[in-house]
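Practice problem: predict the structure.
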Amino acid sequence: MLGIFGGSFNPIHVGHLILAEYIREEFKLRKIIFIPTGNPPHKNVSDLEKACFRFDMVKIAVGNNPFFEVSDIEIKREGISYTSDTLKEIRGKYPDEELFFICGSDSLVQLSSWHEPESIFRLAAIIAAGRAGIPDKELEGVIAEFKNRYNARIYLSEAPHIGISSSEIRNRIKNGFSVRYMVPDAVAEYIAKNRLYR
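Answer:
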């Protein structure tokens, strides 16, 4: 059972790592693959730090966990990068693994607007982590709709919500504030060395 954790990771922070480790144990996943986005259809690319920097930061952050790894498949892909294409590629690489796509409940409620949602639900089960601002009733309705329309397999994680965001970290760095304990020390050193987000 393989976890797929995609995101811009701009930058990766301890909230991402705590969530992934919690879900890995909660769902007994063999491994979690972190996939930094390449050219995502739903984000302004000019707001993203260079892909090579984001990839390096994830690699640094997960390097000491034998159950985590990072993939550059989206970064290497030309053009718009869709989750459905990523899952197809991973399915080809791991034909015998059960795939679990990890996302926040805020992403889950928008999943029907993503490219080829039927492929996403066919290729992977979804593990959704709670996010502040998504009412339980709305989430339950969306899950019921997806199960009915796509025969989706959706699981809600009990992982604690860590109130840290990448945008907050970028703003703190831009304004000269500390991000100690918000990102791993080695990631903070990499950000400082490469003068990112300034």
